[in-house]
Amino acid sequence: MSDPIETAIFEKLSAADPKGVGGKSIEPAEVAKALQPEQWQRMLPRVKAVALGLMRQGRLTITKKGKAVDPSSVKGVIRLRLPTEAETAAALAALPTATADDDDFA
Length: 106
Description:
Layout: H1 4-16, E1 25-26, H2 28-35, H3 40-56, E2 61-64, E3 67-68, E4 79-81, H4 85-94
Helix pairs in contact: 1-2, 2-3
Protein name: DUF3253 domain-containing protein
InterPro entries: DUF3253, WH-like_DNA-bd_sf, WH_DNA-bd_sf
Pfam families: DUF3253 (PF11625)
């Protein structure tokens, strides 16, 4: 089952960045307004939370003034864009790796 917020984020990004090279960005408010035009302010925290999850998976980059940022330490206006290949590789490298000791089903 697909998350409608995630779907809306990637639809807006594909319209802004049709080549998918991580150049163009969107505002989280654009996604919130597309999902709930009348009460988009209520939707905004959920859009940002989904964006944070996508960033941690290496599927999205959160930026401020055109530079990738750590959203937990930034305040103010942020933007969302597709990650570059280097950003995706860095995000995936930062994920914890599974070890044989982690297997609870053995």
